[in-house]
Write a structure and sequence with these properties.
- The protein is of the alpha/beta class.
- It has a single domain, classed as Rossmann fold (3-Layer(aba) Sandwich), CATH 3.40.50.1950.
- It contains seven helices and six strands, in the order βαβααββααβαβα.
- It has a six-stranded parallel sheet with strand order 3-2-1-4-5-6, sandwiched between helices.
- Helix 1 crosses helix 7 and helix 4 crosses helix 6.
- The chain is globular and about 50 Å long.
- The model has no long low-confidence stretch (mean pLDDT 95).
- Belongs to the UbiX/PAD1 family.
């Protein structure tokens, strides 16, 4: 039986990372993805990429709308491995932090926390204000919540930005037990 993972995208910069994450999940037969994109994410997608919504949707197994507050991820009885929000805006982090679940993305995150499942937040903002840092710090104290800002790494000697994005996507999915085929782990100085 496939494992379910909820993948959401909000209006922060970083929509190409969503695409990489969905592609990696699609390659793994053990997982089924439930994609929720905010209206701001859809606007950002058009600005940051040449992808259409249909291009993105082909990588997801199920498509949900933020207004579908009664969809399956809104209930703890819907079994998932957890939820990834990539990119995750500071507005979304503030909503999760305060328990303000007025749409399916926030409700699914709220359910993920209350069920003590893995919640990965690809926090996107720079510079970070004291409010952002406080919200992220307090969320990081909750069991299962991981704040993983999409940071570039160089130890794997990436050839181009595509390899950098793949590496970040692999790191975002690792907490769910999803192994990216081309992920190069740190093996120490040689």
């Amino acid at each position: 039986m496939a494992k379910n993972i909820i993948v959401a995208a909000t209006g922060a910069s970083g929509l190409p990372l969503l695409v990489e994450c969905l592609k990696i999940i699609k390659e793994n037969e053990d997982f089924k993805s439930y994609l929720i994109m905010s209206e701001s994410a859809k606007l950002t997608l058009a600005h940051e990429t040449k992808y259409s919504l249909e291009d993105i949707y082909q990588y997801a197994d199920f498509i949900l709308e933020p207004k579908d507050i009664g969809a399956c991820p809104a209930s703890g009885s819907f079994k998932t491995e957890g939820m990834l929000i990539v990119p995750c805006s500071m507005k979304t982090i503030a909503g999760i932090h305060s328990g303000y679940a007025d749409n399916l993305i926030l409700r699914a995150a709220d359910v993920t926390i209350k069920e003590q499942r893995t919640l990965v937040l690809a926090a996107r903002e720079t510079p970070l204000s004291s409010i952002h840092l406080r919200n992220m710090h307090e969320l990081s104290q909750i069991q299962g919540v991981r704040i993983i800002p999409p940071m570039m790494t160089f130890y794997n000697l990436p050839k181009d930005i595509n390899e950098m994005m793949y590496h970040i996507a692999a790191k975002l999915l690792e907490p769910f037990g999803i192994e990216a085929k081309e992920y190069r782990r740190w093996t120490g100085l040689q």
